[in-house]
Amino acid sequence: MDDARAVTDRVIHLYRNVPATRPGVCRICHTGPNNKRDTGEPHDICSSCERTMGGLYRPTEHVVPISLAVQYGEDNALFKIVVSKANARAAPGWMTPRRLMTATLSRFYQAHEACLTGLAGGPFTLVTSIPTTRRNQPVEAIHPLILIINDINAWKDLHKPHLLLANDEHAPSLYDRYSHPDAFHVMGARKEDQVLHGERVLLVDDWFMSGAHVQSAASTLFEHGAEEVVALVIIRVIDPSPDRPNRMTIWQEASAEPFDFDRCCICDRHDHTRSLSSR
User: What pTM, to 2 d.p., does this model score?
Assistant: First the structure.
């Protein structure tokens, strides 16, 4: 833990707090849906989550991002590290993406294991990750997250690498940000096999944009008998464009306050109005 703290403290300025659920914050992905045209009130779930949770056996209601991130602009360093696997500038030198991602997940889990297991209804019995799906590109022989999960002591005994396999024929759907119930399958199992009966699964992924990958993978786990699936993602990519005012507000708030590993989008119970007025 001390090493994870030291590593993440060197790049603490890259992280952005993820808001807890409140009016104007999607209760699934924790970013901001636009307001309803008729009442002016925010939607409970953003249009992206509404789309990616539809048409599946069962989606997960529990998505926990560690940090917000943007894909473009001057503040996109965390996106480039996690998604593009670029080395991180961390004084006095550089840091590999694997080291940063391992430290981020390890520190967060040690601080918020109770938050995550509370969503799962008990201790996790299985940890796995989402395999890469790429169109017309080679897939890594070993996904970086498999190595990262093995580096985290709390997870390595529960880790089942390669539990999920990707169905390449559905990669275009995921690429277009649409979920598909058959985008993944459980290795060695028929569709009707309840090989995960009663399992409480921690599903780890590096980044969450539309949610198509996470929800498709979670649906497969549920279909094979999982009792609960909690998705833990390092970054939730947000588009704070002017035509998305709620997301713009969330990003501005997150950029204006220091990141704190001791709070998360589940356990943060601070009064939002009070926190804004105290700045």
Answer: 0.92
